[in-house]
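Section 5.1 Outputs to date
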Amino acid sequence: MATNEEMEVNEGNDLVVPLLQPPDNVAIDIPELVKNKDKKTRTVKFKVGNINCAACVTSIESAVRKLTGVESIAVSPLQGQAVIKYITELIGAEKIKETIEDDGFPVDGFPEPDIAVCGLRIKGMTCTNCSESVEHALQRADGVKKAVVGLALEEARVHFDPNLTDVNHIIEAVEDAGFGAELIGSENEVNKVHLKVEGADNPKDMAIIQSSLESALGVDHVEIDLDDHKVTVSYDPDLTGPRSLICRIQEAGSSPKSFHASLYIPPGRRETERHHVIDMYKNQFYLSCLFTVPVFMFSMVLPMVPPFGKWLEHKIYKMLTVGLLLRWIFCTPVQFIIGRRFYLGSYQALRRKSANMDVLVALGTNAAYFYSVYIAVKSMTSDAFEGQDFFETSAMLISLILLGKYLEIVAKGKTSDALAKLTKLAPDTAYLLTVDGDGNVILETEISTKLIQRNDIIKIVPGATIPVDGIVITGQSYVNESMITGESRPIEKKPDDKVIGGTVNENGCILVKATHVGSETALSQIVQLVEAAQLAKAPIQKLADQISKFFVPIVVFTAFMTWLGWFITGVVGIYPKHWIPKDMDDFELALQFGISVLVVACPCALGLATPTAVMVATGKGASEGVLIKGGNALEKAHKVKTVVFDKTGTLTIGKPVVVSVMLFSSVSMGQFWEMASAVEANSEHPIARAVVDYAKGLRQKLESLNEYVKEAKDFEVHPGAGVSGKVGDVIVSVGNKRFMQACNISIGPATEDYISEHEQLAQTCVLVAIDGHIAGAFAVTDPVKPEAGRVISFIRSMGISTIMATGDNWATATAIAKEVGIENVIAETDPLGKADKIRALQMKGMTVAMVGDGINDSPALAAADVGMAIGAGTDIAIESADIVLMKSNLEDVVTAIDLSGKTIFRIRLNYIWALGYNLLGVPVAAGILYPFTGIRLPPWLAGACMAASSLSVVCSSLLLQSYKKPLSVQDSKTV
């Protein structure tokens, strides 16, 4: 039996691991940025060998102190460590390491570069070409290791070396590329609190507060904002918390000067920014309409309404009419003031040697406007000239595009609705209990949930939302966890059970001890995981990326050739003159066709086709208890042709119980269980817990069994086989038959018969050997999950084959497989054997999914094309997986595969919408139907089609919000 640190279904914490895991022989402190004459310092710990005496310590310290940039060094001969603080701008860790080695002391290992992560809000992106430009600009910046830019989210996640660059330089790189950027979060904000300070009127007071906080236990870094009287504190949640920091500030005051601190919650930038953009587009559209409607009336309505038509045709000077002048006056603010954003966008795009939608709009509207200006000027200089202006085309184009962008932003905001609902699940306040040494409640206080600290006792009344993750210490109730896990049935909670923040207490009053707060809660981890997934690109996005590189240049070339083709054929007389509309000439007709081609083409829709669908799907999956870790997993899942299931904890409930025991030696029953439970107490495997629980029950019946479990020394885990350890003076081995054979422990005929008999009953037999001899055996049974058979049947109906892979014996594995309907079985295999089998299947061209829950499954989960971790499994398994099934319900395997298929179908449909508008709209705009049907696409209508293309793609993605689980739908039909 292998160790399997099982994570309870309602825990869900630690869904993500630190980005950088230091090697075992080097301990790295997180770099500390201090304001010391604008110098950035870093503290690093080296493991140094051959430190034998005080002279060695003096030699190392003397050599390192001579280096320019080293601020301090401390060497511990007992721990064999050197702790060095240095200025990153003057010296690096590698130089320090070389100096120590040159002094004759080996440094074991070298720390990898520190990696920091920050999130940026990117402004000004309109298409995939823009997001690629930002990504390339970031990747070229010094110190940036990785950058991912999401068009739909309008965000970037940047991994960088803080010793080489900082957030300000990264933002400058984005701005140099022609886009706006602002910081929206960084990984060092994981345990950070913002406080508003009252009573501190001068820098001296703030310095006192800063000094007091920096000397507090658990405080890592303090930032002071003198202008706004705000303090930002980074801290260790194991040692302190927001309430303790507030008390520290208040204690720093002295009579008559007193300080008061309160929690300051910065406004939600994402939501605030989205509303700001919506309001901007709405206001610009309204302002544009204020001028465009009169232009439209003067151009298309009033000329046909007497006496206005005659008045508009009145000549002011030579051939310049009132109508033409009014159209010019009202159109100009739309073109140059309201439409200024298109000029700026075009300039920035062309400056970085690319082109986007702004270029197309600017070209189209400028062509219409300046040709109209030419008509107006010529009218003022001629006594007989008559020409058709296109001022209404320019104004209406800009107005309709702004309307389309406004509707698009509103629709895009709804793609994150599921995620937004998750973030709002945590309540604003909670009841904090103060207890005395005897556990009696002496005070109950209502506080902000932001002030809850680890180990606080929180009172949860019936109907209240649980604010943080914790453990029930008093009371009993049922908790509705559907908003987190998707599990519709309330879960019973009693003392020692875990609860998840954001879930609802149904009927009883319970007291909960906080174990995970802030960003460490399961809810926060889920939100972080889904946000990261929404930012990641799906492979299918590459199609849009490739097209976007050539899209705008091809459209501009097509528009020019369209104008040229119609103009030349008109001048030569290839087409009849009656094709030309009244009040137009051949040049104007050709110009309208060219402008229509420019503005009907929309690169934005192509860029939104994939990310909007991924955003909606990952958010919808999270609300259903299926966490998908990115577009890659989402895309691959629908291609799965084989699903490999682990047995224990996956197909079975994962809570085995001992059902039979047999002794094969003179050892007593009490001694047998005492030895077995002593070794198994160190393991978290489900069978190990069954042994410990069984021994605990016998403790009350057998006087020979000690009250407390003995401690096993030299404990070893043998993955997929068993465990061993030394209990007292004897060596105890507990495991399967294969483990005993590997240990050269002989198995007698009686033991063989016992194993065979119980394996036929789908029971797992575990052997216990003491000092190399079989002392006894016991059989455990782990009931199959009730939904397992139905899920396997449904998966097979989807044309997907199923395999069960387990380290258990063949007889038990075959019996379980037969019960659930799996025909292919792999038994008596170790974790690497599972991974090898998956690779063998992949070599045959199959796309393989692995479903598992334990440490044993992590190699196979990583090897599979799609790894699915049961939510009740270990954190290691969850980290190795691409998809996490939070409910531990096998039905969600079907949900994940089906949701993937629906999402890919929606993405392809989005591409059809996007490409269809362009492939059909461009020829129609170019006039391909005009010779046969007389149908042409005026520029203002072409602009409306362009705006509608992006909107239709976003709305198509939003339809994924109505997704229903296939098994649930089937059940409702059969009822």
